[in-house]
Amino acid sequence: MDALDLLVNRRSASRLAEPAPAGEALDNILRAGMRAPDHGTLQPWRFIVIENEGRERFSALLEKAARDDQMEQKAIDKAQQAPFRAPMIITVVAHCEDHPKVPRWEQVVSAGCAVMAMQMAAAAQGFNGIWRSGAWTEHDAVRDAFHCREQDAIVGFLYLGTPQLKSSTTVLPPDTAPFVSYF
Ligand SMILES: Cc1cc2nc3c(=O)[nH]c(=O)nc-3n(C[C@H](O)[C@H](O)[C@H](O)COP(=O)(O)O)c2cc1C
């Protein structure tokens, strides 16, 4: 796949099924994440791959958190089902440290770039996915499960798999003018 074509025409995919990337394909995805721009070579990210029984564990975690928070049954069911929207989820944690030259926000942005890089690497190999966040990224039980320290942040859950729908909407060439100026 042509790199420019991928970048200017990419779409996320939320309807995902088996197979999930595995073996060399998954390795390529993780290596692409590791090549995110990284001020100070801090590698300020952690990738937690959730698949197979991991999805059951994640589901149980979210269900319990929703029950503990006394959410409505509908919300509890939604939480319990969330991990089954794709055969694989990669939780991306910005693993931040105090650094004299690299503020925390730069480290969080680096981790976000890793999400994008992994999504593009998935798409380049015939897979796809969607970057999701939501309130669970801030929830103590979820943060604890992914070993977040106080200075860390869950930047997202990258849902990955094989897209079930051919992208229905073509990407129209964007009007860049309102967003771009020359100094
Ligand atoms: C940090 C971040 C968090 C996001 N969280 C969600 C989310 O929780 N749920 C969702 O449907 N889309 C979320 N999105 C947006 C999707 O990843 C996706 O970009 C959007 O559905 C538009 O589709 P497109 O990528 O094909 O343009 C998030 C995007 C970013 C960058």
Structural commentary:
It is a single chain. This protein has 6 helices and 5 strands. With 183 residues, the protein is α+β, with helices and mostly antiparallel strands. It has a single domain (3-163), classed as 3-Layer(aba) Sandwich (NADH Oxidase), CATH 3.40.109. Strands 1, 2, 3, 4 and 5 form a 5-stranded antiparallel β-sheet that branches. Helix 2 packs antiparallel against helix 5 (104-124) and helix 3 (53-68) runs antiparallel to helix 4. Bound molecules: flavin mononucleotide (FMN). Flavin mononucleotide (FMN) binds next to strand 4.
Shape: globular
Which CATH architecture? 3-Layer(aba) Sandwich
CATH topology: NADH Oxidase
Largest sheet at a glance?
A: 5 strands, antiparallel
Helix/strand order: HEHEHHEHEHE
CA distance, first residue to last residue: 34 Å
Taking Cα atoms only, what radius of gyration do you get, to the nearest Å? 17 Å
Instruction: Name the helicity range.
Output: 25-40%
The CATH C-level class name? Alpha Beta
What count of structural domains?
1
**Going by CATH, what is the homologous superfamily?**
NADH Oxidase
Q: Please, what is the average pLDDT?
A: 96
Low-confidence stretches: none
- Bound ligands, named by name, code or SMILES: flavin mononucleotide
Structural class: alpha+beta
Explain the layout of strands and helices.
Blueprint: H1 3-9, E1 16-17, H2 23-34, E2 45-51, H3 53-68, H4 73-81, E3 88-94, H5 104-124, E4 128-132, H6 140-145, E5 153-163
Antiparallel strand pairs: 1-5, 2-3, 3-5, 4-5
The chain binds flavin mononucleotide (FMN).
Residues 11-12, 130-134, 156 line the site of flavin mononucleotide.
